[in-house]
Design a protein that fits this description.
With 307 residues, the chain is an all-beta fold. It is built from 1 helix and 20 strands. It is globular, with a radius of gyration of 18 Å. Bound molecules: beta-D-galactopyranose (GAL).
């Protein structure tokens, strides 16, 4: 049984290390990717067919991952000059059917502070293989911290917090998903949103974000739009004042279910005590949301996958 806020174990009984990540459905499997801060790891991958039993597959990004330059110029390497670890947060993996590559975008920092504020790109030819790093850079020179990737009918977007987290930027990605091609939206100026998570539901786009309070949870907010590049609504609250003691990681669409997935973080010192929170989202009157009138519920009860 997997229960919110409790340690979740893989099929060998080890805690799952996949924070700030995403779940990608590919062929018959769900692949769960996320932060793994142990030893020389950065991103780990698990897979499941029922979202309940998770088999550890691979440490897909580590301090020794190979570097391969792309057509864009980006600084490579997954350790600092003095050999210390960098920091890789909120990894997101998407599949590109045109290139048949799995492309990873994440937030890159130097491991000491948050001044690098860069995006990092990596790719692989299998969902759980060793990823090749393509370097980190600032999209069009903009600071880029908490991030996500969203694919809409094969067009991919990279979304990240810019200008010291004051703004959320949406960048269109190139056909191979490896670079940004255009800044298509700049949202909620000076509202300082983090932890973006996007999904599409009944023809509308939704974005969840948190406020900025580090590892401490705060009031989650959402917005809705009829086009990613169009106008987004103002921000509205969802969940409670601490988003049920969690911060958004991603949203999983599973049949008719829309499942919010968040991290219940330990503090910096107790990061390894962080756990996961899965909660169903109930969305009503989507059209009215555009006028900021509708209510949107997040079920309060614990969402538990049961054997
Ligand atoms: C949060 C952010 C996390 C991590 C943390 C560090 O606001 O969403 O990904 O960066 O701050 O304090």
């Amino acid at each position: 049984m997997m229960q919110n806020g409790q340690p979740w174990l893989d099929t060998t009984g080890q805690p799952i290390h996949a924070h700030g990540g995403c779940i990608l459905k590919y062929q018959d499997w769900y692949y769960w990717y996320g932060e793994d801060r142990r030893a020389n790891y950065y991103v780990s991958c698990y897979r499941s067919q029922d979202l309940m039993h998770w088999e550890f597959r691979n440490h897909i990004l580590t301090t020794t991952s190979p570097f391969q330059a792309q057509r864009f110029k980006a600084e490579g390497g997954l350790v600092n000059a003095d050999g210390t670890k960098v920091n890789i947060e909120r990894p997101k993996v998407v599949y590109n059917p045109k290139t048949q590559q799995f492309v990873l975008w994440a937030h890159y920092e130097n491991g000491q502070d948050y001044t690098a504020a860069a995006a990092i790109v990596a790719s692989a030819t299998t969902p759980d293989g060793d990823f090749t790093e393509h370097g980190h850079f600032r999209p069009f020179g903009f600071m880029s911290r908490d991030c996500t990737v969203f694919v809409d009918a094969e067009q991919a977007y990279f979304i990240s917090a810019a200008r010291d987290n004051a703004d959320i930027h949406i960048y269109q990605l190139s056909g191979d998903y490896l670079n940004v091609t255009r800044l298509v939206n700049r949202l909620w100026s000076n509202e300082f949103r983090e932890a973006p998570a996007l999904f599409k539901h009944k023809g509308l786009y939704y974005m969840l974000t948190s406020g900025t309070s580090g590892w401490r949870p705060n009031q989650g907010k959402y917005a809705v739009a009829s086009a990613i590049e169009g106008n987004w609504s103002d921000l509205q609250d969802f969940g409670d004042a601490t988003t049920f003691a969690s911060q958004p990681a991603f949203v999983l669409k599973n049949g008719n279910q829309v499942i919010y997935v968040g991290d219940r973080w330990g503090s910096a010192e107790h990061y390894q005590d962080s756990s996961y929170v899965f909660l169903p989202l109930e969305i009503t009157s989507q059209r009215a949301l555009l006028k900021n009138k509708a209510r949107w519920f997040m079920a309060k009860q614990q969402f538990v996958f049961k054997d």
